[in-house]
Design goal:
The complex is a heterodimer.
Chain A: E1 5-7, E2 10-13, E3 19-24, E4 31-37, E5 43-50, E6 53-56, E7 65-68, E8 75-79, E9 88-95, E10 105-106, E11 110-114
Chain B: E1 9-13, E2 18-23, E3 31-38, E4 45-50, E5 55-56, E6 61-64, E7 70-75, E8 84-92, E9 107-112
Parallel strand pairs in B: 1-9
Antiparallel strand pairs in B: 2-7, 3-4, 3-8, 5-6, 6-7, 8-9
The chains are: A mainly beta, B mainly beta.
Chain lengths: ~120, ~110
């Protein structure tokens, strides 16, 4: 039973390029969460999605960042026109539901470096 | 969700029990206490959670005070691989909660040989 799969594990982009990070949740999980961890900082919530719906995007930067979780396929975190400040580890987590006692399972993360 | 307070760092000798405290004095009746840890550069890992009663699993024990205003995570026999940042998170149950976890600064546990 594979856990939460994130790819790529490492991504290098030049300023102004686009970054796409993918997350496949655990089997049977229909809720996906994205977190960002800047160097030497804590984990910051970005967005919470269910299939085809964004439930909570209160942690998403207003510009350049978007997320989706289509009916088929992985969840995608997209960063347009990347800047050096976007360099961070991006972690995806999934859970079987959104409420109640709810354990999140995290992936190994995608590390974005912007040159 | 209620705020939690943890010491920024702790040391523990290898093989001894590590007791990590967490204060959550404003916790509500429907809020669970969760513990996660993050070993350097890895994704956070779930450890244990509880509502009112003490809990134990293969990784750790969670002791919640009767008034639920504080809790302690116990790693019974700490190893060097337990060196990590440990996060205590209080999260509400209920339909109004979106399911997200809010991570604070946590406690950096250093297990020493």
């Amino acid at each position: 039973n594979a856990g939460v799969m994130q790819n790529p594990r490492h991504l290098v982009r030049r300023r102004g390029q686009e970054a796409r990070l993918r997350c496949s949740p655990m089997k049977g999980h229909s809720h996906v969460y994205w977190y960002r961890q800047l160097p030497e900082e804590g984990l910051k919530f970005m967005v919470y999605l269910q299939k085809e719906n964004i439930i909570d995007e209160s942690g998403m930067p207003k510009e350049r960042f978007s997320a989706e979780f289509p009916k088929e396929g992985p969840s995608i975190l997209r960063i347009q026109q990347v800047v050096r400040g976007d360099s961070a580890a991006y972690f995806c987590a999934s859970s079987p539901r959104g409420s109640g006692a709810n354990v999140l399972t995290f992936g190994a993360g995608s590390r974005l470096t912007v040159l | 969700d209620a705020k939690t307070t943890q010491p920024p760092s702790m040391d523990c000798a290898e093989g001894r029990a590590a007791n990590l405290p967490c204060n959550h004095s404003t916790i509500s009746g429907n809020e669970y206490v969760y513990w996660y840890r993050q070993i350097h550069s890895q994704g956070p890992q779930y450890i244990i959670h509880g509502l009112k009663n003490n809990e134990t699993n293969e990784m750790a024990s969670l002791i919640i005070t009767e008034d639920r205003k504080s809790s302690t995570l116990i790693l019974p026999h700490a190893t060097l691989r337990d060196t990590a940042v440990y996060y205590c998170i209080v999260r509400a149950d209920g339909s109004s909660n979106t399911g997200k976890l809010i991570f604070g600064q946590g406690t950096t546990l250093q297990v020493k040989p």
